[in-house]
């Protein structure tokens, strides 16, 4: 069985059982992930800061991409430090574009990862199919199979240069709260959990997609449902621990995004 790892979410460390007190990155694991070709998720891109890979992103228009807010928080006023690489399953892609502006959702909280979303305005047009966004205010039924993708560390702690994927099942926000009673989860997030695979660690900003076109063996881009935001530090498979995602059907975030899309 193919067994690799993927760094895709920011870990949250709880100082006590009642509040989220600290956020830090940790080494990742997606167990039983496998490669996915870029034609399945052509809008996927990797974010480099000062020539170092840091996060994933998703292209939503000719000069606009989105990522997790915490990925670009500390260099948000230095957009020239960021570069997007796209159009390939490999992070070494020669298709590259500089970031002209970084915009983080105004209500973003670095303590709770509430509204964990940022828009990257690009210097030049990009020539890939853009991500298909969900209908505003749409919901994901618990039990729905989702596809999380991204780049990250392998089991020998070297960074994967190949795009990887894993299947997760959506769970209700209440179930997510029950599993994590001290976490301040909000309605602009959704949760999913693996069965025999899981996500954890620090490579956020990548996408989680519907499974619609994978089932139909179609090359039409799948619907981008969310941006990978956070996860549990234990990387536990038994019992599996949920990961959290910024919900792109959220009305507030979509209205804000619309003002920034070029």
Automatic annotation (TrEMBL):
* Superkingdom to which the source organism belongs: Eukaryota
InterPro entries, alphabetically? Peptidase_S1, Peptidase_S1_PA, Peptidase_S1_PA_chymotrypsin, Peptidase_S1A, Trypsin_dom, TRYPSIN_HIS
GO MF annotation terms: serine-type endopeptidase activity
* Matches recorded under PROSITE patterns: TRYPSIN_DOM (PS50240), TRYPSIN_HIS (PS00134)
Question: Which keywords annotate this record?
Answer: Disulfide bond, Hydrolase, Protease, Serine protease, Signal
- The residue ranges crossing the membrane are none
Q: Which residues form the Peptidase S1 domain?
A: 30-262
Q: SMART domains recorded for this chain?
A: Tryp_SPc
Question: Would the keyword Ion transport turn up in this protein's UniProt record?
Answer: no
Record flagged with keyword Zinc: no
BP terms from Gene Ontology: proteolysis
Which interval of the chain is the signal sequence? 1-21
Its family?
Belongs to the peptidase S1 family.
**PANTHER family, per this entry?**
AT26814P-RELATED, POLYSERASE-RELATED
Protein name (database record) = Trypsin-16
């Amino acid at each position: 069985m193919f067994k690799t790892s993927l760094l895709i979410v920011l870990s949250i460390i709880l100082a006590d059982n009642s509040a989220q007190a600290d956020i830090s990155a940790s080494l990742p694991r997606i167990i039983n992930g496998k490669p996915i070709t870029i034609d399945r998720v052509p809008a996927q891109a990797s974010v480099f800061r000062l020539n170092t890979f840091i996060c994933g992103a998703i292209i939503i228009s000719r000069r606009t991409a989105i990522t997790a807010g915490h990925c670009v928080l500390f260099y948000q006023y230095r957009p020239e430090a960021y570069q997007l690489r796209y159009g390939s399953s490999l992070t070494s892609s020669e298709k590259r574009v500089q970031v002209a502006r970084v915009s983080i959702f105004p209500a973003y909280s670095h303590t709770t990862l509430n509204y964990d979303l940022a828009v990257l305005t690009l210097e030049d047009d990009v020539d890939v199919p853009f991500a298909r966004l969900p209908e505003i205010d749409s919901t994901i039924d618990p039990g729905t199979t989702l596809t999380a993708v991204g780049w990250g560390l392998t089991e020998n702690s070297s960074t994967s240069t190949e795009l990887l994927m894993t299947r997760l099942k959506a769970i209700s926000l209440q179930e997510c709260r029950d599993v994590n009673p001290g976490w301040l989860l909000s309605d602009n997030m959704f949760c999913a959990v693996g069965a025999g695979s899981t996500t954890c660690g620090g490579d956020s900003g990548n996408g989680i997609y519907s499974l619609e076109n994978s089932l139909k063996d179609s090359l039409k881009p799948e619907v981008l449902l969310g941006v990978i935001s956070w996860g549990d530090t234990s990387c536990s498979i038994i019992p599996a621990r949920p990961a959290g995602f910024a919900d792109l059907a959220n009305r507030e975030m979509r209205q804000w995004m619309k003002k920034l899309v070029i």
